[in-house]
Amino acid sequence: MATTFNSDGPVLFFLFVLSLFGVRYLPLRDLVHLSGFQRQKSELNGPFSVTQAILSYSQYEQLSQRELKRMRASYSKLGRAHKRTGYDLGYTKKLNRLEEVTASNAEVTRAIVGLAKTELGLEVDGEGWIGEGQSPRGDLGKVRETLRHFVRDWSDEGRPEREEIFAPILEVLKHASSPAAMKVLVPGSGLGRLAWEISRLGFDTTANEISSYMNLALRFLLSPTTTTTLDQHLIYPYAHWFSHSRSNDALFRPVSFPDVIPRLTPTFNLLERDFITLLPPLRSEGEVGYDYIVTMFFIDTSLNAIATIEQIYTLLRPGGTWVNLGPLLWSPGAQASLELNLEEVIAVAEGVGFVLGPIDASKKKTMTVDCEYTADRQAMMKWIYRAEFWVATKLT
């Protein structure tokens, strides 16, 4: 939740009315208008906004080529002997290969832009080519992060990482007695694989994500216009980072996706809004609230962790369950109002009324899960999160 669409009372009320009729997915064009998309230009350019995401995807290839140009310039500064050694090693061919696979990746980013523009029916100022002397406004890092999420969420290569991190969450949900009658919310759902897997267990599942980088990429997978067959798309997600690479084969290996064809269904819904603005769903039996809220690598994206935990509590029905797994990697640069440690997060959760644990026979409130996140499994470096897992209940 690094940024939000500005919301007002009428918009929230309208969305609440829609929820009464079971409407939880709107065309992207309608969502944009509801979010005040056409009010003030300043509201359109947040780091996770639709316009910024389209701009970044459309400029991916050129931004990458600018970076490659700097790499070639650095190589050209070598002395003659060292430059010759680099040539004999095949370094110039390596840089040429980077240019080729970047062009291949750009086929996917252009397709994401094309679908978004079709659904939105708009043009983005500054889209595409960056003129001489202009500073690029696209965010290359966020586009590359999304490409890695295609691997993590929707490829065979990402399966071991998914299985490791999804397992404790899905194990809890598998013990539910009547999943068809239960509602699950997955905030910070990214490209949606966890929410999709939960829906396959029979739960009425809503994936909630504010980042338009993620939402546009997920829509690219959900749309029968752009994704129709298994392993239809090919990307080279590791090529841009030469560090910790064992070989060129490892560096430039392709990854195909998706390993399954995801589609929105009566049990898999998409809600593209700031989690803090959500309202509890109205139940057919007159209750309000979700039966489960599942947060994975989410709490530490909060600018105000207390508000996030209070919102989780508010959105759950009495007796509802919060399942969490993730680290506490707070946003850099003092963006977060609070950067809490694990003990403090648990104290806040219990303070708002949650009862944690026990996880197993040890009666501990939480459990540590060692895991990776969008990792390159063939790299010379591993970043291991010692993520914390807990199951908490809202009693009243």
UniProtKB/TrEMBL annotation:
GO MF annotation terms: S-adenosylmethionine-dependent methyltransferase activity
Source organism, top-level taxon: Eukaryota
TM helices/strands, residue ranges: 12-32
Tagged with keyword Transmembrane helix: yes
Coiled coil: none
Keywords: Membrane, Transmembrane, Transmembrane helix
InterPro entries: CARME, SAM-dependent_MTases_sf
One Pfam family from the record: CARME
Record carries keyword Flavoprotein: no
Protein name (database record): Uncharacterized protein
